[in-house]
Specification:
Radius of gyration: 20 Å
CATH class of the largest domain: Mainly Alpha
Number of domains: 2
Number of strands: 0
Structural class: mainly alpha
Helix content: over 70%
Number of helices: 10
CATH architecture of the largest domain: Orthogonal Bundle
CATH superfamily of the largest domain: Tetracycline Repressor, domain 2
Distance between the termini: 66 Å
Strand content: under 5%
Shape: globular
Largest sheet: none
Oligomer: single chain
CATH topology of the largest domain: Tetracycline Repressor, domain 2
């Protein structure tokens, strides 16, 4: 291993060390109350070292969401490549993917949705914004391929697949954010997955060209 390769590995190791520490602090104190000094202390590094990797806490906050988007794209791509599945089966598989994406890191995915609708984006570097945009486009594009396949097979209504992908993603983010806000009022109740399942059932039925048969257990 050459000197340059060692340096790059050490740089990435240190970057991940900072991100892991930031996640712990953000989870404990929340975004607004967290400072770069808090994160540096958790990472056992000097504040100056943090600024070598991230220009502010907003960049750290945003970097956490990249893992979610990467995971989403990997999982959706896997569904696309399952050629033995019918379009409707892939639609069901997509629903399971979204549940898994939420379970991957509930806090970070909630933070990601807040981030995308806040002023925080204005404080990010152009490079990080472009990375977030690219991953988001890739994920939405991958989901759109599932809808495109169903449209071409005559199983889904003839709408723009990207529009259907956007609606599906908006449904997911809307339910996640709404349920998160409800838990602030009553943290004993968590209806997220039940609500998401119902929302996807309604959405899926709406895009099918013909209504699927319902089992007796569902119709009762």
């Amino acid at each position: 291993m050459g000197i340059q390769e060692r340096k790059e590995r050490e740089k990435e190791r240190r970057r991940q060390q900072i991100i892991v520490a930031a996640k712990r602090v953000f989870s404990d104190k929340g975004f607004n109350k967290t400072t770069m000094e808090d994160i540096a202390k958790e990472a056992e590094l000097s504040p100056g070292t943090l600024y070598l990797y991230f220009k502010n806490k907003e960049e750290l906050y945003a970097s956490l969401s990249l893992r979610i988007l990467q995971y989403l794209h990997i999982r959706v791509s896997h569904v696309i490549n399952q050629t033995e599945l019918s379009p409707t089966q892939k639609l069901d598989a997509l629903q399971e993917v979204m549940f898994d994406v939420y379970d991957f890191d509930p806090l970070i995915i909630i933070n990601m949705f807040h981030l995308q609708s806040s002023e925080t984006l204005k404080n990010l570097s152009p490079e990080l914004i472009e990375e977030i945009k690219t991953l988001s486009r890739n994920s939405i594009g991958a989901i759109a391929k599932i809808f495109q396949e169903g449209i071409e097979a005559g199983k889904f209504i003839n709408c723009h697949p990207v529009a259907l992908s956007d609606i599906s993603w908006s449904l997911f983010s809307g339910v996640v954010l709404w349920e998160a806000s409800k838990k602030i009022i009553d943290d004993k109740k968590d209806h997220l997955k039940a609500t998401l399942k119902l929302a996807y059932e309604i959405f899926n039925r709406g895009i099918l060209t013909s209504a699927p048969e319902r089992s007796d257990s569902k119709s009762k």
